[in-house]
Amino acid sequence: MGWAHARCVAQTRCVLTPFLDARSDQGVCLQVAAGVLFGAAVCAMACGVVSMLTASVLTSFALIWIQCITVEQAFASIKGRVVLATVAAYGLGDGLSSTVVTDVVAEGVVDFGSRLGPIGVLFLVFMITSAMSCIVSNQATAIILYDVVKHCKMEDVSTLQLVVMVVLGASSSFMTPFGYQTNLMVWKQGGYQFRDYTRMGTPLTLVTGLLASVLCYLLVKQDPPPPPNPP
Prior knowledge:
The structure is a single chain. This protein is mainly alpha-helical. Helices cover 64% and strands 0% of the residues. The longest helix is centred in the last third of the chain and has 26 residues, at 194-219. The radius of gyration is 24 Å and the shape is globular.
């Protein structure tokens, strides 16, 4: 009896790149190659040789070419929910800008921050961003709050410094277990409770925000002053 008349048929396909033992010689070579490609991409972006998009695409193709990952693994790493949330955040940010909500929030931040000084303003922006990132994804938080801080005009604080604090604050979601994927990964496995994140994450966020505010104020260059008006 041929396979067409069989009751149970198993369909298989050949995988050209099987999983390798990380301790084997070929596995070690692939690990080193992946690390070298990642380092080269970061250096190229930092030196301004290529853009982030170009470096990411070229590195991805190189990893597939050396058979470090398969095409299926590359496409599986694209998270549709993250992409959708990021795209939707752009629309929300544009909506807040068009309805002048960002201007009102920016004025409130400037009015309150003028009493705190430049480092206090940077710390305030960091804490607002970090608190929002504990609830919303960090990509959406950065996109939404960027539309706010770009309207903040202060004498001793540049827009670049505010943007840096938004980026750092969006990546400092320590106070809740669902602030980032790694928080969720260790929540149940480590036997933690919600209050453990709040108890340990709050002082960690405060210390990180204070250090980031001081270093950002001292190290990040100010925006160039506008050219003087001709007489």
